[in-house]
Design goal:
Blueprint (H helix, E strand, L loop, with lengths): L21 E4 L3 H17 L15 E8 L2 E10 L7 H4 L1 H9 L4 E9 L6 H18 L4 E6 L4 H8 L2 E9 L4 E9 H11 L19 H19 L18 E3 L2
Parallel strand pairs: 4-5
Antiparallel strand pairs: 1-2, 1-8, 2-3, 3-4, 5-7, 6-7
Helix pairs in contact: 4-7
């Protein structure tokens, strides 16, 4: 489940100019430990249970970390529908299965955390944007699912354009109430095209999209991803190799 405190709209915008942080894959033990520590701190602060991070990154799941001065200041995990069921299948099995039967290629974003002392909308937007690039632009998934606390539903409706598809249930992983939200990646693509890389528009556009990358920056990220990970990113999990070399290496996904 996504946990974010303070809520998206209460995060500071972030300093203008070049980004001081990088987005990297949590593909080594040290970085996974830092991610796990950040998650534990934010989830336990809310009174939620936490689970251990996977020991590695394969073709159906990967974790991103925002790194600044050797410190993990944010993280998000992406899981693709495939041989393993999604976390949302536990509390919302009928809703998730209905999407599969509609022919949708679904993935979910979860295990979100941002350090409240130095996290910003720019950090959060960068994590979401790189996750979107891998899921939609590189692997062709068309539908995003997220579970959030009911109190935060309106934030995600306003900030990302999500809509509710599953009413309040108990997320047993964190032992807390959750609602299921969805948004089409086509909508995210449209909003990035309109607002991405234009933080000055945030005064009137009350979403997260002005803090996303510009289309020029996105194209550069896609080019780097294709150069390094084309052997498994393009064709989705059913065609991706499962050998050890399918994990993310090297770890630097974007040099910003």
């Amino acid at each position: 489940m996504l946990v974010l405190d303070p809520p998206i709209e209460l995060l500071p915008d972030g300093a203008p100019g070049p980004r001081r942080f990088k987005i990297k894959a949590a593909d080594n033990e040290s970085r996974r430990g830092l991610v796990a520590s950040l998650l534990r701190g934010r989830y336990l602060w809310r009174g939620y249970r936490t689970s251990e991070q996977p020991s590695g990154q394969g073709t159906q799941r990967f974790t991103l970390a925002a790194i600044e001065n050797q410190q993990t200041i944010g993280t998000i995990t992406v899981a693709f529908d495939g041989a393993e069921k999604l976390s949302a299948d536990d509390a919302f099995p009928a809703e998730v299965q209905a999407m599969r039967e509609e022919g949708r290629r679904i993935c979910e974003f979860g295990k979100l955390a941002v350090d409240p002392t130095i996290g910003t909308k720019r950090v959060l937007a960068a994590l979401f944007h790189v996750a979107y690039i891998v899921a939609h632009r590189m692997r062709g998934y068309d539908t995003l699912l997220i579970e959030v606390n009911p109190r935060h539903t309106r934030y995600y409706e306003r900030m990302l354009g999500c809509r509710v598809v599953g009413d309040v249930r108990i997320n047993r992983t964190v032992d807390a109430p959750a609602v299921l939200l969805t948004v089409d990646f086509s909508h995210i693509m449209e909003q990035i095209g309109r607002f991405g890389g234009r933080p000055e528009l945030s005064a009137t556009e009350r979403s997260l999209y002005p803090f996303a990358f510009s289309l020029t920056e996105e194209a550069a990220i896609i080019s780097r991803l294709k150069d390094r990970y084309e052997h498994w990113l393009d064709n989705g999990p059913e065609k991706a190799p499962v050998a050890a070399d399918s994990e993310f290496q090297p770890s630097d996904l974007m040099g910003m």
